[in-house]
Design goal:
The complex is a heterodimer of chains A (288) and B (275). Chain A is 85% helix and 0% strand. Chain A has 288 residues and is an all-alpha fold. Chain A folds into two domains: 38 residues; 214 residues, MetI-like fold (Orthogonal Bundle), CATH 1.10.3720.10. In chain A, helix 7 crosses helix 8. The radius of gyration of chain A is 26 Å and the shape is extended. Chain B contains ten helices and ten strands. A six-stranded mixed beta sheet of chain B has the order 6-7-8-3-9-10, with helices on both faces. Chain B has a four-stranded antiparallel beta sheet with strand order 2-1-4-5, covered by helices on one side. Chain B is α/β, with parallel strands linked by helices and 275 residues long. Chain B starts with 6 loop residues before the first strand and ends in a 7-residue tail after the last helix. The C terminus of chain B is likely disordered. The chains are: A mainly alpha (288), B alpha/beta (275). At the A-B interface, helix 7 and helix 8 of A face helix 2, helix 4 and helix 6 of B.
Amino acid sequence: MPVATPAHLARIETELHRQSRLRTIYSALGIGVLIVFMVFGFNSADEANAGSFSDGITRLFDFPAEIIRLSFEAGWSWFGLLWHYFPFLLETIHMAMLATFIGFVGAVVISLLASSNLITNKLFVSTMRRLMDFMRAFPELVLAMVLLFLMGKSAVPALIAVAFHTIGALGKLFSEANENADMRPVEGLKATGAGWLQQIRFGIIPQVLPNYLSYGLLRLEINVRASTILGFVGAGGIGEQLTANIQWTYGADVTAIFVLLISTIIALDYISRWVRGRLIGTGSMVGA
Amino acid sequence: MLGSVMLKVQQINKCFGAVHAVNNVSFAVAEPQMIGIIGRSGAGKSTLLRMLNRLTEATSGNVSYEGKNVLALRGSDRRSWQRNCAMIFQQFNLVPRLDVLTNVMLGRLNDQKLISSLLKIFSADERLAALTALDRLGISEIALQRVETLSGGQQQRVAIARALVQNPQIILADEPIASLDPLNAKVVMESLRDIHDRDGLTVICNLHTLDTARQFCDRVIGMRDGKIVFDGASSDLTRAEARNIYGADEDFEEAMTSTSIETVSNDLTPAPGIA
């Protein structure tokens, strides 16, 4: 004979059941919606495809085979191409770095204004959040194409486009880091009579700086890729060289550019891991 | 300031929704004293101290310090009051990723120019003041360590050093020893007592252990459910009064509220000097 559960515990038990049932229903609904989207997505992609899938797949493999054949034909002069395209790579990296830096600074400012633990005015915080959503939602490519049309072909419109998007993307991540920060140091400083900026500078920044830098380095990697793509639409740099060479099927040049790009991404990954390790490991730099 | 009233708290109230956390509390401090506020958790002790420092806004009431209306201060006047009225917290509230010396110098933020303070430029005087304060608390040798590597007792002493460099007139300590082991608790309480004795500062200290209040404070304020139920010399605190403060019944033992080494040994052999 089971022991009778007291009434007040039984109530908790029923509530628990009700909640877990609700959670199950929500999860099932979520999975259902996901499946529907996937099926529709595949169908519309298939319909939009010119020609059949099987035709496309053979062409997909023909092109790499062709450019690799051409690269071997080029022989030793292929290494000269690496040197030839290196300045264009630098141009793209410069553009990405500058855009990331501008975006980083903007993101720090806007993220502090968009953190509900740092600003008491809820309306202001949500306005700032919507502003970041807007900046993030604008694809770099679309913004860059509009600006390139208005301002003429140069690196500046692309720079603005990438920086704009970066503010929104990093700002969102930074404000989450801010909101997860321990507020006790801030309270301690507030109690000494420190002003808002001083509380932020010493209570929040030392805690979140490693996160900021790690997100910033990741963003730099993304922005190098984005800046390359913007070269396709006329922003200069290595992207412009790549698109031209692909169109002319200069196989050796295309592989040289690919090797440069992939090495850059790998190098950035190593550098960012090393920098982050140093920041979190020894930490003495963090307080700067 | 002898004779006239220094700090005066009049009918201060704080409501959080339907909860009346602090209910018509009034007391006055005429001359520098070491005051212990005791009571159970949730009696309103923390809220009271936070209102005095202006970390929490009072719902109603009046606080005056040397004739100045504390609760009406705004902007930089409010911040300069906060500098005058240093606060020490149960969880220390230091910046874990900065070194000890910087943490202590941050007590001077209120006096500094905004730009140089944001660039973390401190003067030689400020460094000296911070080192002197650390030395006084016996921890100058850890000045360059990061705070997050320290023990709780060390962190609380760093917090006291930060309070000292603020050059305050009052020190408010919100459960300063509640997260510490008995030995560190004793060191911290002795430091606070020393600040009161030597510098003549008023120290108001929230405690939940009766024997600590008796041992270190001249005056005890007992709070229960947001109200003051006892206010007098610590020697006047009878067992019946203590029972009333803690809302306990007949078998209430003072040692039940204790965490100190002395009381533990007290159970075995009654030592003189401690009730």
